[in-house]
Amino acid sequence: MKISWSKRTGILGIVVFIAMMIFLIINRGAFLADEDLESGKLLFFLAILSCVLCGATIVFKLEFKDKRLGMIATMIWFFLAPIISITMVEAFSAIFIYDLAPVYFLANYICYMLFMLLVFAITGHIGRAILFPNCFFYGFALCNNIVTTFRGTPFVPTDFLSIGTAANVAANYDRYIDFGIAMGTFIMIFIVITSFKIRGVRIKARKYKLFARLVSAACVVCVCALFYGTDVVPNAGIKPDFWNQLRGYNKSGSFLNFMLNTKYIHVSEPDGYDADEIEELVESLASQSDYEPTITDTEDMPNIIAVMNESYSDLTVDGEFETNVDYMEFYDSLSENAIKGNLFMPVNGAGTSNSEFEFLTGLSLSFLPSGSNVYNSYIDSEIPSLVSTLGDLGYSKTAVHPYYESGWNRSTVYPLLGFDDFISIEDMIDQDIIDQYIDSDNNVYLYESLLKQEYGEEAENMLVRRYISDSYNYEQLEEVYEEKTDDGPVFEFNVTMQNHGGYATNYYNFDEEVEITSMSKIYNLANQYLSLIKVSDEAFQELIEYYENVDEPTIVVMFGDHQPFVETAFFEELFGTSVNSLTTEQLQCRYMTPFIIWANYDIEEAQYDQLSANYLSSLLLKTAGLEMTEFNKYLLELSEQIPVIDSVGYIDKDGNYYTYNDETEYTDLLEDYEKIQYNALFDDEGRVESVFYLSDN
């Protein structure tokens, strides 16, 4: 064995070294952060060594006199490559190999090796078998880093179906290079260099090469069959952390968890499912209901205005803190003709459409694959909902959302839920203005200037930060009500946008009035968020005052879709522990938002401390005194036994907290609910229409 080099490789190696060092120096702040300077210095030093290593790998070449030794060295490198790949991918999440338990390290190694064996079986080329999979691994790691930074939850398989929405949302966040991206990129450069170094190494003998490729393919097929066709792997404890994906990604490896999630994309029939038994299952509870509608004439039915307020929540449910001003003063003051409480949502930090799915359908995300988006994955035909129920009663049905109509596939899904009209931002603002705003990389100054030129004084109230304000949004709701063309009642479902994350950028058109005064440090993201909630509270007051002066009976229901994604340290100070160490009860707190059902006429006041979003539309129908489906009656009775069913677990009528791994007296009820949901959402041919629709009764 000897080491050689040439002038060409020497120059190329020096160029690569200098380029990497320039990149490193420009982005040195990603390593030398004030919070952990010592670790940052060590990582920065390792990054410098990476630059040296990459340059040296290009410059120098190992030559073996005995070609068999060269092949052996190449094969050793091939079987070491997955370890390098794991290091690269986990660097993006600031996780190191020694953080992984041995069983998880082995599972990761097998997962990465399978991809390399697959490419080798196809190409018969060792260099390509290392290079091509690692390009894919790098793309995944970068995507996962960005998604986790933006929304606080990792990248899961069903996110591929939400790429359009994700692109719109990502444009509103500040992007930067952290040390994970830098280190991962440097490792990827090293992998590329070494892959090209061994590009000429091949198995020459045809029979040995064919044998090696067949064995590689057989390994891939056998492991995939074992994983997707049996429960051997999950029974061994290697499965996603369904209730906290981020914890699972950090604990046992991000790419491994991504692949583990692919096993659960397809929704199979629940064990023991029989469409012929669905009506009986529903009636088992619905028959216990003594509910009778009090309003049957269309002309007496109240208008219903439903507002799902973006990221609206009271974060004191996670732990007490004080602020300089009250940020929910009006909401807290409402008591007369109001039903209020805590609503447990299916998502945290992001996933708005999943929250509206639960409210509108009465179905639960807890029975679907973790990380899935229902609107993108599962709704491709008409399904029963609150919208179809109100339509059967004679309501006009309009959805309003002051953002792009393509988001979360709403323009396709809303008609399938039963909406007659969908008013999006494209209907509120001239398309040319929207196009110019997008082309300017979301320049708020330009956006506001164009709005003022087009709409004059009306534009003064349009934006808070870069989003349509709640106040202007509610004016659109009022216009829909005022422009109704018949004497029938209206149903409006509104998803607001004002409070959407991120909260890192300061805006000239938004004054942050709220400051947290009782915590150990300043949390800028939380302060901006709470300031937005104060503005939202003021806008809600305007909406209520408008409908107080409307002659027709009207009900307004308002709730938050999920808690915001602000500083992790903020939540950890509230809970007094790491967010990865929360108890089931503490974790449930992160899924709570406020809700209120208010009427401009006399209704019985009530307080619900615990209720999940899937029950809210049935409670709304009951409050309005309207006729409801057998499924709605079933849900009302189920809520008496299990008031909370969400992504974390469930809470029973006595306030006991459970996860779905617990075998309890409620297990059978949950299994029945899952079968009923499957019939409503997936079994188009076997759906029992009379259970879910008034028109079939």
Automatic annotation (TrEMBL):
Residue spans crossing the bilayer: 12-30, 42-60, 72-97, 103-123, 135-156, 176-198, 210-229
Domain Sulfatase N-terminal residue range list: 302-620
Keyword terms of this UniProt record: Cell membrane, Membrane, Transferase, Transmembrane, Transmembrane helix
Primary subcellular site in the record, as a coarse category: membrane
Membrane topology: Multi-pass membrane protein
Gene Ontology molecular function terms on file: transferase activity
Record keyword Transmembrane present: yes
Domain of life: Bacteria
Pathway in which this enzyme or protein is active: Cell wall biogenesis; lipoteichoic acid biosynthesis
Cell location: Cell membrane
PANTHER family reported for this sequence: LIPOTEICHOIC ACID SYNTHASE, PHOSPHOGLYCEROL TRANSFERASE I
Pfam families: Sulfatase
Species of the source: Eubacterium oxidoreducens
Protein name, as recorded: Phosphoglycerol transferase MdoB
Cellular component terms (Gene Ontology): plasma membrane
Gene3D superfamilies the UniProt entry points to: Alkaline Phosphatase, subunit A
